[in-house]
Amino acid sequence: MSVYTKLLALLICFISVCCTQKQEVKNDPEAQKRTDSLELVKKAEEEARKKPKTAEDITLSKELSYDKHTLEESYPYKDTSRHFQMEKIKEKLALVENFQRVPANYAVLQNYKNRNQEAPLVKNYHRNEYTRISDSLGNERYQSAPLYVVGETKTPTLYGRDGFLVKLQSADTLDMVKVEGISFEGVFEVPKRYVKSLGDTVNFHHIAFVDVTNQNILTAERQGDCKWVIKSMNPATTGRHKPPYAQETPTGMYVIQEKKTKMFYYKDGTTSIEGFAPYASRFTNGAYIHGVPVNNPKGAIIEYSWSLGTTPRSHMCVRNASSHAKFIFDWAKKFNALVIVID
Q1: 3-state secondary structure at position 292
Q2: Distance (Å, rounded) from C-alpha 292 to C-alpha 321?
Q3: DSSP 8-class letter at 182
Q4: For 67, what's the count of Cα atoms within 13 Å in the CB-facing half-sphere?
Q5: Which of 66, 178, 341, 343 is deepest in the core (most CB within 10 A)?
Q6: What mean pLDDT value characterizes the chain?
Q7: CA triplet 110, 316, 330: central angle to 5 degrees?
Q8: How many CA atoms lie within 13 A of 83 on its CB side?
């Protein structure tokens, strides 16, 4: 008997068995019920997979990798108390789960110090307290990328902040790249010089949450489907509103883009280096998560400051204990980790 004949015989036998099983199920009401039940379970599981995740679906447990200067979930502050906004954090984690459920080509908008050219004026703009131009949502022109309504490439409508995360909807080699916002809502076109492709294999499983209201920082790492673990819970000091130099840390979702063991900074209004901040991870514009500033370019690293976790006093950056800044520096990889600033 030839190989072909044997395969044909096996196929006929398989079809015969299947038909027999189907007939048995048809003639057996109980078997039919079991089959129907399995189909319903499969259908329910498929619908559950399609349904967007919510905060209630997120499991958030504590497994600290960094245990210095640790804060409790709720803790005293002066004559009141502060806390970590766990429900809001879970909502953001659900958002992260949802946008990663479907394979995508990710990209980040970039224009640090206008290196990719100053963005054109948007249709509706105003000049803010820092004498800089902003769009209708308050996003500054400086260090941002222009967002054009699809098909309308004469004048942009909004500015996309440096560090904003997007999904590519067209090739990133075109003069105008079509993107879908993750850090913002909507689909826009952006000149390709402002778009850095991250590819389709990146996973955002490391997130630092900065709370500008409670002045704290929490890091979380994904361990499985909707399962996240807290790696650290620490005091932080964010940016303050003090024109013309100090700005608030902007809320939103950003990609960590750059790291510096020492981030040197100027004295306000000069080009004279005043000092440095250790273990700095930049996520938008000139905003870094970093250690305690040292007002001496050649000074030694300072571990902690009494001002951490009190009131905003930084120049947009997020100050941490220096060892915690180093933990984030080592733990959160460039273009593979997020900073989510909440209020």
Answers
A1: coil
A2: 6
A3: S
A4: 4
A5: 341
A6: 91
A7: 70
A8: 9
Which two three-digit tokens encode residue 139?
């996003």
Tens of pLDDT, residues 260-305: 999 999 999 899 999 999 999 999 999 999 999 999 999 999 999 9
Which amino acid, residue 127?
R
Distance in angstroms (rounded) separating the CA atoms of residues 95 and 106:
15
DSSP string, 168-184: ESS-TTSSEEEEEESSS
Residue 8 clears pLDDT 60, i.e. is over it: no
Contact 211, 85 (CB under 8 A): yes
Amino acid at 140: E
Amino acid in the structure at residue 126: H
Nearest-CA neighbor of 90 among 70, 73, 109? 73
Instruction: Output the CA angle 218-221-227, nearest 5 degrees.
Output: 110
Beta bridge partners of 177: 190
Q: How many residues does the chain have?
A: 343
Which pLDDT tens digit goes with each residue over 50-71? 799 999 999 999 999 999 999 9
Confidence bin at 92 (pLDDT 50/70/90): very high
Q: What pLDDT does 7 receive?
A: 45
Neighbours of 133 (CB within 10 A): 18
Quick one: 70 exposed, middle or buried, by C-beta within 10 A (0-12, 13-18, 19+)? middle
Q: pLDDT tens digits, residue range 142-192?
A: 999 999 999 999 999 999 999 999 999 999 889 999 999 999 999 999 999
* Residues in a beta bridge with 246: 242
Q: What is the CA radius of gyration of the chain?
A: 26
User: What single DSSP character describes residue 228?
Assistant: E
The 10s digit of each residue's pLDDT in 329-340 is 999 999 999 999
CA angle 172, 196, 100 (to 5 degrees): 90
Number of Cβ within a 10 Å radius of residue 15 = 10
